[in-house]
Description:
Helices cover 22% and strands 20% of the residues.
Amino acid sequence: xxxxxxxxxxxxxxxxxxxxxxxxxxxxxxxxxxxxxxxxxxxxxxxxxxxxxxxxxxx
Length: 59
């Protein structure tokens, strides 16, 4: 499954990231603040960001 996002990796600046599939305790805490875990496909860094609205994904 391919995820195209406008979420930018804080380490390398690339837009090629996907939602992280391994839930951790911190993920539940961060979700309370509206953040979800992503993983960069280029440098493999795991980071938190706000979900991308559907209308921005198609642009």
